[in-house]
């Protein structure tokens, strides 16, 4: 028997309104509950997982309060809050998973969780033996690193050949989980002539510029941001690839910098998560006049290619092209600090993280 703490949805969020993190308020968005879980509760094929690490992702806002059923069904009051996580199996009725296995999957804001269908939850086993730290499987070997991999190797159509090197990239949200890996891939693997890395505040700019001499950080919080961005790129019509994690005004500005036949890869829209009006794409005409390629992606579309991608990411880490120690921010949520899980997640929207934001629920044995 395991006593598990679980964060559930208390009140359905109002579209366009921020979540309510005052947990004493009857109108609070989330509520912490405790439940008892045991092997007796498992259905055939199910597993009981003890959570060690929780991934914090902007996309969770859409998982919780979905406005597009093509993406997520949303969460009903009383249901657990979904999150990707890493944990250890405590009990199993599935021949593919044994007690003691470490697994990554779509779990919840919980200290322990029953997963009825590991396939639906995209569960896979991970090992402590081939990584420096187990949490790497949520950062440089996790879903956000997979997103970065597919941006370059599939959707941008890049290859590790000389003719694909020496390009100019703009990367928005460059200090975030996906953006920080994209910056490293552009710089170290595809030998970018220049990476214009958009980040928020002087500290974040310093962080993205620490990846290499060819990275030019631009502070979107600066009063001179528009001019700074244009200057960093060397003017309009100078950029080959724009990897956008933000949307909104930055997307509008970014497309003006692209060359004719340039490429936009859209993998996030964090600027509009609290204000849907910021989702508006005002500069759409540039897609036509510049004959741009504009491509969105969800990493789950490429499940069949995950093993190949994981192998490549591991190779890049070993070669020093990806730096795990500089790609994540870990926050203590052990014991009583589990009460702060929703607040830690909300820190994404205040920019508290450098790289992947991970909540530490329990240290591995």
From TrEMBL:
Domain Alcohol dehydrogenase-like C-terminal: 177-313
The keyword Transmembrane helix appears for this protein: yes
Record-annotated Oxidoreductase N-terminal domain positions: 27-117
Transmembrane domains' residue ranges: 134-152
GO molecular function: oxidoreductase activity, acting on the CH-CH group of donors, NAD or NADP as acceptor
Record's keyword terms, sorted: Membrane, Oxidoreductase, Transmembrane, Transmembrane helix
Keyword Transmembrane among UniProt keywords: yes
Protein name: Enoyl reductase (ER) domain-containing protein
Organism, scientific name: Torulaspora delbrueckii
């Amino acid at each position: 028997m395991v006593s598990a703490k679980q964060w559930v949805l208390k009140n359905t969020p109002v579209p366009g309104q921020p979540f309510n993190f005052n947990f004493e308020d009857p109108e609070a968005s989330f509520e912490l509950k405790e439940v008892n879980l045991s092997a007796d509760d498992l259905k055939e094929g199910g597993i009981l997982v003890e959570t060690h690490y929780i991934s914090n992702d902007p996309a969770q806002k859409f998982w919780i309060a979905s406005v597009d059923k093509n993406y997520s069904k949303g969460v009903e009051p009383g249901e657990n809050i979904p999150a990707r996580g890493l944990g250890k199996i405590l009990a199993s009725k599935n021949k593919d998973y044994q007690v003691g296995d470490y697994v990554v999957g779509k779990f919840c804001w919980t200290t322990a969780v029953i997963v009825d269908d590991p396939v639906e939850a995209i569960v896979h086993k991970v090992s402590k033996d081939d990584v420096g730290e187990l949490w790497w499987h949520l950062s440089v070997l996790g879903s956000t690193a997979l997103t970065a991999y597919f941006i370059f190797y599939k959707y941008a159509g890049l290859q590790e050949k000389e003719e694909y090197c020496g390009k100019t990239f703009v990367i928005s949200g460059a200090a975030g989980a996906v953006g920080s890996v994209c910056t490293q891939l552009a710089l170290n693997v595809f030998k970018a002539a220049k990476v214009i890395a958009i980040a928020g505040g002087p500290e974040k700019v310093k962080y993205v510029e620490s990846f290499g001499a060819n990275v030019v950080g631009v502070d979107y919080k600066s009063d001179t941001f528009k001019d700074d961005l244009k200057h960093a790129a060397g003017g309009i019509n100078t950029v080959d690839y724009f990897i956008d994690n933000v949307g909104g005004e930055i997307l509008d500005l970014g497309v003006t910098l692209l060359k004719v036949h340039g490429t936009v890869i859209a993998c996030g829209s964090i600027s509009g998560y609290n204000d849907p009006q910021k989702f508006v794409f005002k500069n759409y005409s540039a897609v036509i006049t510049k004959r741009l390629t504009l491509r969105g992606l969800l990493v789950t579309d490429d499940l069949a290619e995950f093993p190949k991608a994981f192998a490549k990411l591991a190779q890049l880490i070993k070669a020093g092209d990806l730096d795990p120690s500089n790609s994540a921010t870990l926050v203590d949520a052990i014991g009583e600090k589990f009460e702060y899980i929703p607040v830690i997640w909300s820190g994404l929207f205040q920019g508290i993280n450098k790289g992947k934001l991970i909540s530490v629920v329990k240290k591995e044995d």
